């Protein structure tokens, strides 16, 4: 829902409202239903609106409450806003709209920065205090909604997308060498505060930042699940059947919460366990005529391009209003170029273009969808999790690096040009420091904590937000409900690893879904032409990597690029990323955004 932006000056100048206007306009696709600007001295805010809750102009943003002396811009949805509004009314607050934005504003007045601890939902926001000049930035626990920052000594700018900051101007667009190391190690994922550009950072997930008028600031992280068996005393001593019921009940609540809207809500149905379970639970709760959507592509490299057999099975079982969307190769290439433009950061996952094209079609039918992202990280569904079973806690980083890293630090010398090489293993250090933190009972617990609170934020979560919001479509992810995540974190590792991964979730699904869906081989949005980099996709990659811009930037060794172009399927990584696509996508993104 929406896009927000703003500028805070620390040099006694008024905020540059023209720059904020440029940022706002750059996010038009995130909020096609309206826009607004507000400024007061050194602070200016901008907003693009996607109407989901309270479709009236009373819910327009920036929202100003003159009585409380607060102005807010907000992106996301507070699923428990009705309950919070009732509580705030009992405390004496009056409401003029039925929006969750006004609830957020008055919750901040009532509870200060601790308001985030009461929110159930996805959110990024900025609250400006009239009387103090203070601005408070906040982001949800799982980082579902983005917040990018560009800061120098004179001012801080923030926005829901990185390209919006570029539109404002005056950004250091040099490639961050540590971020490049992460990109090449974590299959394009740049976790934490960094982005691929040296001048842009991210507000971390589960973080509130208080910015004072003089430019000083403080941050605090308000949520950090411990990943220990004793974290939830009420679930101590549960047997496998009781854990299955607890997980199913928590997922029921998560799915039900994400139906709150003043517009219809659909489901992105891949035919896999996760999205199919969402459909089943909605049907169980009495949803009729639910709109579901699946996508397929042409085969390539001997690989099938759709999973319609499974999505059709689920759609028929639950009587959904199902939409099959098949994309010909000609449209794929056009969609690929537009998907790269829609990326706030370069993302190599081949299903980005699938999400982009699927969202383009879905947005013609509904404004909100539920989607199954996050289940694999939360319930240990990926193939790199089982090798961590029974590994001593102190060896977690070693085993995770072997199973998850695209290439060890020492191999980067044959890929990156010497001017972009680091003399230390920044990615290994990031992982090692995270896994060494206190808490997390086992090696698997430590890695699941890393995956859920860091890696997931900057891969599937960002991917879904970028590709859906490019078409003014809001995606909601029930598997990232923070109460469900806390429950899964406390669940015994052996229950999650059972049945090849996501065992407790599969067991919970057996009373609702056909065995063919639960026990099928793990699938993804298949886009064979990108996984194998052939045809017109190969032409795009070759053009990007051999262009004058790429030569002048000089990120990669020419001999390595030439070898990959001669053999596009060479050097496959442990997680299945095509290295040629990894290199080509980065150059395509930099060039598409004028870097």
UniProtKB/TrEMBL annotation:
Ranges in a coiled coil: none
Pathway stated in the Swiss-Prot or TrEMBL entry: Amino-acid biosynthesis; L-asparagine biosynthesis; L-asparagine from L-aspartate (L-Gln route): step 1/1
Top-rank taxon: Bacteria
E.C. code: 6.3.5.4
Enzymatic class: ligase
Keyword Amino-acid biosynthesis: yes
Pfam families noted in UniProt: Asn_synthase (PF00733), GATase_7 (PF13537)
UniProt KW keywords: Amino-acid biosynthesis, Asparagine biosynthesis, ATP-binding, Glutamine amidotransferase, Nucleotide-binding
Location of the Glutamine amidotransferase type-2 domain: 2-214
Reaction equation(s) it catalyzes: L-aspartate + L-glutamine + ATP + H2O = L-asparagine + L-glutamate + AMP + diphosphate + H(+)
Family: Belongs to the asparagine synthetase family.
Protein name: asparagine synthase (glutamine-hydrolyzing)
Organism: Nonomuraea bangladeshensis
């Amino acid at each position: 829902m929406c896009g927000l932006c703003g500028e805070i000056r620390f040099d006694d100048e008024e905020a540059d409202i023209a720059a904020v206007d440029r940022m706002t306009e750059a996010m038009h696709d995130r909020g096609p239903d309206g826009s607004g600007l507000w400024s007061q001295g050194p602070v200016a805010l901008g907003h693009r609106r996607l109407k989901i809750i309270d479709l009236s102009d009373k819910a327009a943003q920036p929202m100003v409450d003159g009585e409380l002396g607060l102005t807010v811009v907000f992106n996301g949805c507070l699923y428990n806003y009705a309950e919070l509004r009732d509580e705030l009314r009992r405390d004496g607050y009056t409401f003029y709209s039925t929006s969750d934005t006004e609830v957020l504003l008055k919750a901040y007045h009532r509870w200060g920065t601790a308001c985030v601890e009461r929110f159930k939902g996805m959110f990024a926001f900025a609250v400006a205090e009239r009387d103090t000049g203070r601005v408070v930035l906040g982001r949800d626990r799982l980082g579902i909604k983005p917040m990018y920052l560009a800061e120098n000594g004179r001012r801080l700018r923030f926005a829901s997308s990185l390209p919006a900051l570029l539109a404002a101007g005056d950004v250091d667009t040099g490639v961050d060498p540590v971020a490049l190391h992460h990109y090449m190690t974590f299959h394009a994922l740049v976790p934490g505060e960094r982005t691929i550009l040296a001048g842009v950072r991210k507000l971390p997930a589960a973080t509130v930042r208080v910015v004072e008028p003089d430019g000083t600031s403080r941050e605090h992280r308000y949520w950090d699940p411990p990943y220990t068996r004793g974290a939830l005393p009420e679930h101590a001593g549960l047997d496998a059947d009781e854990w299955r019921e607890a997980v199913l009940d928590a997922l029921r609540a998560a799915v039900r919460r994400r139906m709150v809207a003043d517009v219809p809500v659909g489901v992105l149905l891949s035919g896999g366990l996760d999205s199919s379970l969402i459909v089943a639970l909605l049907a169980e709760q009495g949803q009729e005529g639910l709109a579901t959507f699946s996508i397929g592509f042409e085969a390539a490299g001997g690989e099938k391009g759709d999973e319609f057999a499974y999505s059709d099975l689920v759609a028929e079982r639950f009587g959904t209003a199902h939409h099959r969307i098949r994309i010909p190769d000609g449209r794929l290439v056009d969609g690929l170029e537009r998907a790269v433009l829609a990326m706030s950061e370069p993302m190599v996952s081949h299903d980005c273009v699938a999400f982009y094209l699927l969202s383009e079609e879905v947005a013609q039918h509904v404004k909100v969808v539920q989607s199954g992202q996050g289940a694999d990280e939360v319930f240990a569904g990926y193939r790199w999790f089982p090798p961590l079973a029974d590994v001593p806690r102190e060896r977690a980083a070693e085993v995770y690096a072997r199973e998850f890293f695209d290439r060890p630090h020492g191999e980067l010398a044959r890929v990156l040009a010497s001017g972009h090489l680091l003399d230390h293993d920044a990615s290994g250090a990031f992982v090692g420091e995270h896994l060494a933190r206190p808490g997390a009972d086992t090696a698997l617990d430590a890695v699941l904590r890393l995956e859920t609170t860091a890696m997931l934020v900057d891969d599937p979560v960002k991917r879904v937000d970028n590709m859906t919001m490019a078409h003014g479509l809001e995606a909601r992810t029930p598997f990232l409900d923070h109460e469900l995540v806390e429950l899964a974190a406390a669940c015994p590792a052996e229950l999650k690893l059972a049945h090849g991964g996501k065992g407790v979730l599969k067991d919970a699904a057996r009373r609702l879904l056909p065995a063919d869906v639960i026990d099928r081989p793990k699938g993804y949005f298949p886009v064979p032409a990108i996984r194998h980099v052939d045809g017109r996709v190969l032409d795009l990659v070759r053009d990007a990597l051999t262009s004058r811009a790429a030569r002048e930037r000089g990120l990669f060794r020419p001999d390595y690029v030439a070898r990959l172009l001669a053999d596009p399927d060479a050097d496959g990584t442990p997680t299945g990323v095509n290295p040629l696509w990894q290199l080509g996508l980065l150059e395509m993104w930099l060039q598409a955004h004028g870097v």
